[in-house]
Amino acid sequence: MKLHHLATLAILSGLGMGSALAQTAVSNAWVRGTVPAQKATGAFMQIKSTQGGRLVSAASPVAGVVEIHEMKMDGNVMKMAALPKGLELPAGQMVDLKPGGYHVMLMELKQTLKDGDTVPMSLVFEGKDGKRETVELKAPVQPLGAGNPAPMHQHQHQH
Predict the structure, then answer these.
(1) Are 64 and 110 in contact (CB under 8 A)?
(2) Domain count, the chain
(3) How far apart are CA 136 and CA 65, in angstroms?
(4) Where residue 130 sits, what CATH number does that domain have?
(5) pTM across the whole model
(6) 117 in a domain, yes or no?
(7) What integer pLDDT is reported at residue 15 of this predicted model?
(8) Separation of alpha carbons 84 and 6, rounded Å
(9) Does residue 27 lie within any of the structural domains?
């Protein structure tokens, strides 16, 4: 009987730890395709953090530099700028990274990104408690003229 209780406790402990670690979900990720010699493009997705926090950094083997950016109107001019402190993620709210708004900027591209390619990315999130979480994903490349493609159900690995 004692062994049965220990096994149940171990299972419950494992379940509790898993849900505490996976607090950020990334869905519908995609990357805009490029033409030969183009050195930058954007990655777009939806992010939801159960406890809140921020997207603090990103990396991809296809780019020499990866930054979190925003586009916003400054008077009558649309301007793009890096977010050096990252992107705030309010608890429980979906944050859209989309063309013309927040996005992950892939710069110093090492290759042309064609429709049908897949771009691996690592996103680093920092929770309100200061703990960091990395989400690995593979984002499909959409044609250069793509806007917001239809949602795709993707399974992202969370660590």
Answers:
(1) yes
(2) 1
(3) 17
(4) 2.60.40.1890
(5) 0.78
(6) yes
(7) 34
(8) 47
(9) yes
| Burial classification of residue 47, based on how many CB atoms lie within 10 Å of its CB (0-12 exposed, 13-18 middle, 19 or more buried) | buried
Asked if residue 149 is part of any domain, the answer here is: no
- Examine residue 153 and state whether it is found in any structural domain, yes or no: no
pLDDT in tens, 4-53: 433 333 333 333 333 345 689 999 999 999 999 999 999 999 999 999 99
- % of residues, the chain, pLDDT over 90: 69
82, amino acid identity: A
Say which amino acid occupies 128. K
pLDDT surpassing 80 at residue 76? yes
Which phi and psi angles does 59 have, rounded to 5°?
-150, 150
Q: How far is the C-alpha of 124 from the C-alpha of 66, rounded, in Å?
A: 12
Q: Which domain holds residue 89?
A: 23-144
Residue 62 and residue 75 in contact, taking contact as beta carbons nearer than 8 Å: no
**C-alpha to C-alpha distances, 52 to 25, 83, 130, 140, 142, nearest whole angstrom:** 11, 17, 11, 27, 29
